[in-house]
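S1.2 Input.
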Amino acid sequence: MRRCYHALSRRWLAAILTGMERRLPPQYAGWQSHEPALRRMTTPELVMEIQDGPPDRRLAALSVIDLADVAQETIEDWIRTLPAAEANELAGAIPASRPNATCAEDLRWVDLARKGYDRRRLPTFLVMLFSSLEALEARACAEAPGAWEQIADWLGETYDRAHEAGDEEATEDILLFVFENHLQRSAVFEAFLGLIARHEDLARRVSGDPALFLGDLPEAMQRGALEEAARSGGLPCCSRSRACTALSKPRRGPSHPPGPHPAQFTMDE
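S1.3 Output.
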């Protein structure tokens, strides 16, 4: 099976999975050696490997299986029960941006990736969620605008819950994998403005380093975000030269390297 991803998603996904590989627990050693034999198996056989096989073969099976041929309830059960390294591989197996897929299939992956992130808080699910949304839009599906609106609303609620729980890892993942890359989408931008209004720490962060999030946006959107930040406890909108100058500088790289956080995949599960 050949998996196809949006170019940006491929870069993030490769970084995440490379980080995962460096931190795999010892029970997964040698998992890649199983891939050639597993590629010759049928989907039902691969499902059995994932259900009942040893850890190294489960991970290899997840790396080659075509999820389009697997029942939704089976995948959702895997989201709930698989160890973190395997759930991360499952997220990477979501067939986003597949040529000739239907709008209904893209919507299925949007919903699955959202459920995966809700349950496991693994950033790979975020990457595949937005890759699936972009595929839906690229196919000119009538459902695309509504899907972007729904996910933007969900994103704001998810950030709020993570912030309230003190889950800095989750809030940083949302900022890095979504808002640093998708703010040009009007629905995502409106969700971002709502978060700035509700979270003074984010307002200060946006106004203190506007190029990080706003550098690639049109001027009107930049000013709108800075004005919202100023109203919500951030720096006065462009009243300080460093805030204005920052927007004219080249955008710097991500605030932390992409990939699983060091705490992930370091313990046997």
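S1.4 Remarks. DSSP finds 15 helices and no strands in the chain.
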